[in-house]
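Quiz preparation item.
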C-alpha cells in the first residue's frame, strides 16, 4: 500500500454521490424549516415578510419532506455506500466518547471516518426529524387531539427547533472553518494529507479501498 503521506496532494474518495445528495437534500429541508419557522415565531420578521399563510405552508411541506431523502437514499443500487456511512455514524467507541468529552483535544489519532462530533450531530438530526414531524403534525392538524396534546406538542416543537438552530449553526461554522471537510461533502473527495490529519484511522483504509477499486464506504470505523 502506498504511504498516505507520500503524495499529500493526491485525493481519496470520501463520499458517494448518493451520500452527498442525502446530506444536501436533508440540509435544504432543515434550513427551509428553520428559516420559515423563525419567520413564523418572531413577530417583527413575520410582519416584515408578510404572506404568513404561504410561509406556514412552505414550513409544513419542508417538514414533511425532511425524512424523504433518507428513504430515497436507501433505495436502488446506490444504497450500499449510504448504509455503510450510517453504520459508521452509529458505531461509538471509548475513543469517541473521550474525543467528545475533551472537544477533540484527546483521541484525535483514533478518529475513523467520522469523528465523535459528526456522530453526535447525525444522532441529533436523526432524533430531531421524527420529533418535529410528529409534534408539527399535531400542531397543523390539531382537531383530533386534546388540548393537552396540542400544548405539549407546541412546547416540544419550539424547544426542539431552538436546539436545532444551535446545532445547525455550529455545524455550519465547523464546516466553514474546515475547508477539507466541506470539500469532501461538495466534491466527494479529500486530499491524503487532510485525511491523515483529521481521520487517521480511516485514511489508510481509504487508500487501500481506492487502490483496490472498492467503494470507500466499505470500511473504516
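Solution:
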Amino acid at each position: 500500500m502506498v504511504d498516505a503521506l507520500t503524495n499529500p496532494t493526491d485525493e481519496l474518495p470520501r463520499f458517494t454521490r448518493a451520500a452527498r445528495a442525502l446530506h444536501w437534500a436533508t440540509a435544504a429541508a432543515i434550513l427551509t424549516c428553520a428559516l420559515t419557522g423563525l419567520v413564523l415565531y418572531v413577530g417583527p420578521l413575520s410582519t416584515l415578510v408578510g404572506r404568513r399563510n404561504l410561509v406556514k405552508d412552505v414550513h409544513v411541506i419542508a417538514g414533511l419532506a425532511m425524512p424523504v431523502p433518507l428513504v430515497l437514499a436507501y433505495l436502488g443500487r446506490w444504497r450500499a455506500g449510504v448504509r455503510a456511512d450510517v453504520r459508521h455514524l452509529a458505531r461509538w467507541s471509548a475513543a469517541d466518547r473521550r474525543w467528545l468529552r475533551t472537544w477533540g483535544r484527546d483521541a484525535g489519532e483514533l478518529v475513523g471516518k467520522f469523528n465523535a462530533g459528526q456522530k453526535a450531530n447525525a444522532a441529533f438530526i436523526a432524533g430531531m426529524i421524527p420529533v418535529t414531524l410528529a409534534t408539527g403534525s399535531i400542531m397543523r392538524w390539531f382537531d383530533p387531539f386534546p388540548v393537552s396534546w396540542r400544548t405539549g406538542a407546541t412546547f416540544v416543537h419550539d424547544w426542539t427547533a431552538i436546539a436545532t438552530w444551535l446545532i445547525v449553526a455550529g455545524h455550519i461554522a465547523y464546516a466553514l472553518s474546515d475547508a477539507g471537510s466541506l470539500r469532501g461533502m461538495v466534491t466527494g473527495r479529500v486530499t491524503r494529507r487532510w485525511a491523515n490529519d483529521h481521520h487517521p484511522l480511516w485514511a489508510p483504509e481509504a487508500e487501500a479501498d481506492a487502490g483496490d477499486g472498492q467503494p470507500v464506504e466499505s470500511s473504516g470505523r
